Amino acid sequence: xxxxxxxxxxxxxxxxxxxxxxxxxxxxxxxxxxxxxxxxxxxxxxxxxxxxxxxxxxxxxxxxxxxxxxxxxxxxxxxxxxxxxxxxxxxxxxxxxxxxxxxxxxxxxxxxxxxxxxxxxxxxxxxxxxxxxxxxxxxxxxxxxxxxxxxxxxxxxxxxxxxxxxxxxxxxxxxxxxxxxxxxxxxxxxxxxxxxxxxxxxxxxxxxxxxxxxxxxxxxxxxxxxxxxxxxxxxxxxxxxxxxxxxxxxxxxxxxxxxxxxxx
Length: 264
Prior knowledge:
Elements: H1 2-33, H2 36-49, H3 59-65, E1 72-74, E2 81-83, H4 86-95, H5 106-120, E3 142-144, E4 147-154, E5 159-163, E6 165-169, E7 175-177, E8 182-190, E9 194-202, E10 205-213, E11 222-223, E12 228-232, E13 245-252, E14 255-257
Antiparallel strand pairs: 1-2, 3-6, 4-5, 6-13, 7-12, 8-9, 8-11, 9-10, 10-12, 10-13, 13-14
């Protein structure tokens, strides 16, 4: 019995030793699979891949701040997000002419206004006829009347001759207006009539203005009735006794006609 008791005690001691050895092997195996240092390194790497969000910042704000090409600011009171690049958008709109409060485009409006102005303006009609009524190029006393049927006296020349025009007394510098719509055909210097403007009136009619200075027109211009075309000049030597005046004549198909017939 004593032998049997000793044998059982020895077997029990041997069994406990085997259990400890087995348990120790499992712990070592677990540490080999997932050591503590390896776990910490994994967590650190994961933290580097996913940046931490500051305390008090929502995940939505963090996501918005990471968006490329545009920075967003959060309004903490309303939760609305505003693009910092909105200033750039405003600049582009301004350059494009879209700064009106109603959103309309200034550039387009200006172009439309220009088109309207062009459509409103129409060139004067050049269509003179026997029924056309002109206005006086200037008001003054007629010094020498039109006369192609008989001769009339010219004081400076001290002779009688035909006169294809009317010679109207006027002070030097007096404005001269276009008697009727016309296109400037020529501007010439003439010994007798000085600076002389010939206008085409249409249908073979012409109007001639002489003794002028400081012209406001050029060859090729279309002039509206009543427009100032120039001013009375000092008289040429052929009209020194008559004094400063306007030489005004008309032609039909190259032949002189009486201007008085078309004046009020």
